Known about the structure:
This protein is α+β, with helices and mostly antiparallel strands.
Amino acid sequence: MLAACGKEEESSDKQKDTKVTTNNEQENSNTSTSENIGESTPPPIQEAENIPANEKKALLAAFDQHVKTFNQKDLDGYMSTISKNPTSFKLDEERDYIKNIFETTDIQINPQNVIIIDYKDNEANIFTEMKTIVSETGSKKKVEQLSRQINTFKKEDGQWKLNATFAMETK
């Protein structure tokens, strides 16, 4: 079963605010030097070109809220970011799963390379590499994992909600 969070597990002694870093922000922070000679190669995943600026801002804010509430172990807040009718998981099972994760682990997720790869009026797909750091509650041993995810958001009552998550672990 894939959970909405992609079963990412991460540890947190302190609650942190998470800022989503988009691919464009990362490109702007990478300056070319004399060592970078030759043509630049495009990123393997491209941002959708048809996203209105206000929708891009709303989508990234919804994604950011989803991550933030997860990292704060705010179960109700986290569940409020999810569609009432998700397609890749069952809502009641997700709630039980996340509640168990919050109670038994110290966990943080940190999105990297966030790119809106597909956009339609009421649906969008966001690609991200999600770094997860997790440990059992009270344990000092931490495990880090990086996964690639596609998170599908759909509009419900004018707001973007997570509808599906597909994750693949990377090495």
